[in-house]
User: Fold this.
Amino acid sequence: MKLNIYQIDAFTNRVFSGNPAAVCILENWLDDITMQQIAAENNLAETAFLVKKGDGYEIRWFTPSIEVALCGHATLASAFVLFHYYDITAKKIPFYSLQSGVLFVQKEENDLLTLDFPADPIAEVQPLDSLNEAIGKAPVQTFKGKTDYLLIYESQQDIEEINPNFHLLGKANVRGVIVSAKGTTVDFVSRFFAPGSGIDEDPVTGSAHTTLTPYWSQQLGKTKLSARQLSQRGGDLFCEDLGERIKISGKAVPYLIGEIEI
Assistant:
């Protein structure tokens, strides 16, 4: 069997930055083992698989080691592929996820794509000594969302200097850990660590901003925010808090178009 594959750098306007995702658009679903093996072979943070359904597409996301409930950058990459290489005339594409419900991506002006995702409400929790030890720096506040912890720090410099112990962090029973602070040139900055999900540090994490946006919207007293994820590759996002939904906008560029044989 031969399958088309696309590798797209998401949340960036140039290759070799942002977050790379692989996209495979299928006629019918492959078995779970095969999709997991393809994702492991790609060895990217996520590989998205899509199958046409009505006016949109069913979507699933796999890291090299597990299937995840939600992935922003691979959804953005999937929309980029559909808008640029498939006969999509509509400006908004619905994506259907069994685990995260209906998601939308809209084509905007100036090459922006906008994710429309459910917000991830958070609650403040007591600091976890094991988590703080793994991160290597105690936060000002600790929050817990649906799948991730959010650790708030005093400054952007704190975020830049964090050097986690990934072995310890991988033992935490959590999808990922977001660290964040107010930015110096943007509204807020962040990094995202998920060794338990097969990714030590994710370059740019769209889904994390469903947690970050409501927090910083409340803290800064505004609904539209600029953000930057401070990974080595880096990425830029524009976020809007709509209450129960979050809009996350960014650009994407193609890196590879090919064919895999399985």
